[in-house]
Amino acid sequence: MPKATNRRRKRGADEEDTGGGSANKRSATSVLTSLDVNDAPRPELPLFQLNGRHGGDEEEEEEEVTGGGGGGSSSALAVVAAAGSGQGPHQQRRLWVKDRSRAWWEQCSSADYPEADFRAAFRMGRATFAMLCDALGAAVAKEDTALRAAIPVRQRVAVCVWRLATGEPLRLVSKRFGLGISTCHKLVLEVCAAIRNLLMPRFLRWPDAAAADAFKARFQAESGVPGVVGAIYTTHIPIIAPKVSVAAYFNRRHTERNHKTSYSITLQGVVGPDGAFTDVCIGWPGSMPDDQVLDRSALQQRAAAGMMAGSWVVGGASFPLTDWVLAPYAQPNLTWAQHAFNEKVAELRRVAVDAFARLKGRWACLQKRTEVKLQDLPVVLGACCVLHNICESRGEEMDPGLRCEIADDETVPENPVRSDSARKARDDIAHNLLHSGLAGTKFF
């Protein structure tokens, strides 16, 4: 009993020192509330848990400091800013700047850096890279702050291009450019979004009437097949198993071939005679066959509106024969004319396959599971397709050692022939190829 009395007396003395019981109650409430806000320090916890997050969000705390960084990074010291007078330590904010080396990027950006090494690192020459920076400058540039200079446009674009080109994890990108991991991730998404919004309308678009006629003339001169405006192909991009709809993204064919559980999304593209993409459809789950992806694409909507009349898009056996999609004969015991037709279709389809091989070779991030979230991945893949077109249009040679071999995962469409008129048109083309001497001799 005396001990309890002493504790009550001591508590009463504390209340008198703080201005009464009600004042003490408000003080305790403010402390408990401050534990839920970002500014509440917890000295007993690591830095990345000061705002109530777990260890997986460590770089998010660092982002407050490194997000606008770009000038010389300071040493690892704490900058403590009080919000006002009379505040306790729990209302102070601590910002940390980690010392990182930018020697590699400074070397790459110097004028005497070898052109061959620059091209190997960024899959494009300096002139193309400078054009890219000029085109994106207004969209990705940031202003300097009172604490530090903003990251230059060239460095922002370089972070994105190098990440797409190498597919290296963000922690290695961070070491290369001397920036925070979360900063690099944000830069990649920002630059990819700018490429999609600003450059895709310029460099990835369906050909107009004049360009379509030129495409048809080039394809016919090479193969003898009239009216071909492009070749279509669908590839798969590996992803980490999503948290929702896992079965939809499960890729059975890749799993069986690689003996490893695989998940993917699809990338359907139409390619012109110069190897550049004219249409892309990105993001459908990997379990979806090629004909179903086609049915859900904007290309199908264009055809339904009558905008594909008089034109063919050549596909493989996984695509159905329609009034505008020209697919090979799939039945057994083919005639000579049908063999000849299939040969020419394979040659035309090879244009799209080679384009996808260069796409995945240039941008190695498409060959491995990425750290990008599933909802952000279509923007990144679209940016890769645009950058591919830019490199193709500017004659950027790709190292043959980077070429990626494309594995065919052709599926059988539920309805391989969807149009009787298309069936007759295909028979006429096959007959003309054979009797005009354009058939080839592989099947003899």
UniProtKB/TrEMBL annotation:
Cofactor: a divalent metal cation
Similarity comment: family membership: Belongs to the HARBI1 family.
Domain of life: Eukaryota
Species this protein is from: Urochloa decumbens
Disordered, as annotated region: 1-74
Record-annotated DDE Tnp4 domain positions: 232-389
Lineage of origin: Eukaryota, Viridiplantae, Streptophyta, Embryophyta, Tracheophyta
Protein name, entry field: DDE Tnp4 domain-containing protein
Subcellular location: Nucleus
